[in-house]
Amino acid sequence: xxxxxxxxxxxxxxxxxxxxxxxxxxxxxxxxxxxxxxxxxxxxxxxxxxxxxxxxxxxxxxxxxxxxxxxxxxxxxxxxxxxxxxxxxxxxxxxxxxxxxxxxxxxxxxxxxxxxxxxxxxxxxxxxxxxxxxxxxxxxxxxxxxxxxxxxxxxxxxxxxxxxxxxxxxxxxxxxxxxxxxxxxxxxxxxxxxxxxxxxxxxxxxx
Length: 207
Known about the structure:
This protein is α+β, with helices and mostly antiparallel strands and 207 residues long.
């Protein structure tokens, strides 16, 4: 795999700075503590995705190959903030072909909120550039179609060995629904690595 500069571990701080989210948890001592972590959550998440979408556009226009804006696989509309994901390429794989909607895939992943809080992950990970080191990771098998739309869109554009940080607007995530630790209207941020995939009717190779 070819290493591309500006690894994904640097992007959450950049995103937070761009939307002025230096402190997302604050407490007021009046008659008791008040947790402001999720105040104006929908507005803050929409602003966060708008900021990263705009940043990606600027980088692409400047000739960067590290950023992509990918339209949702299910829409025929022109790309927009509501129907597209933003991708930062951390490592570029050498595999040919991409998973299809009906395929199964073996991946490493970590899901985060805009404040950097991890809400889901496969196996183990760390916060270094080699977040998905083969020494400790435990991959997960997925049906490509059995995820939120933004995640499915990303998988259908990845090659084996790719490692991406994927930013998903709430419209292509869980939307107005809450899911576990994910509150409604959350922008989702995934570190995602594609290891293998198999076409419909075929089993994934032994790992």
